Amino acid sequence: MRIPVWAMLLIPVVLAGDASPVLPDLALPIEGMRVTDLRDMFAEEHNGHPHEAIDIMTRKGTPVHAVVTGTIQKLFLSKAGGITIYQFDRDQVYCYYYAHLERYADGLEEGMHVERGEVVGYADSTGNASPLAPHLHFAIFELGPEKHWWKGKAINPYPALVAAVRRKQ
After folding, report:
1. Which domain does 124 fall in, by range?
2. CATH code, domain with 129
3. Can you point out the beta strands (E) in 58-108?
């Protein structure tokens, strides 16, 4: 079968539409993480909806680090996530979501610039998390043209976090 030239020109466009976005190299949100600390739970169902995040088990009070340089877009207390942070990267392409925090880092404010690796909060089990299982709930969203902190396309953070751990080894 012979494929017309015009159809061959569409192949990269079609493939790119299904391709996963290329995320920047992330810093570790929890210092000292190992690959064995990570489990891909992005597609699992939690409380009746897709999880679309990864839970990184850790001790209560463990420092949580910004994974990229960017801006603290929103500090938010929610029923599900408890104490949360929404951080935009410097180009406002991605939003990084940190949830179930014990508290924010001292002086952290909305609109504040943070550097990759800077402590932004401390892990816990606030919101709907079990008090017996402190962890960081971490998610990545690709922002739309509106740049709303509460709205975006969920991106699986597992591959990017595994790559970050391997870079540190």
Report:
1. 25-168
2. 2.70.70.10
3. 63-65, 70-78, 82-89, 94-104
Q: What pTM, to 2 d.p., does this model score?
A: 0.86
How far is the CA of 12 from the CAs of 7, 109, 114, 153, 155, in angstroms? 10, 42, 36, 22, 21
Is 9's pLDDT higher than 50? no
Query: Angle 158-162-164 (CA atoms, 0-180°, nearest 5)?
Result: 115
What is the torsion angle, in degrees rounded to the nearest 10, for the CA atoms of residue 102, residue 107, residue 112 and residue 117?
-60
If we measure between CA atoms, which residue out of 67, 62, 163, 63 comes closest to residue 115? 67
Q: Is residue 86 part of a domain?
A: yes
Whether 89 is in a domain gets the answer: yes
CA separation for the pair 135, 148 (Å, rounded): 26
Residue 19 lies in a domain: no
**In-domain check, residue 133:** yes
pLDDT tens sequence across 27-65 = 999 999 999 999 988 888 877 778 899 999 999 999 999
Q: How many domains is the chain partitioned into structurally? A: 1
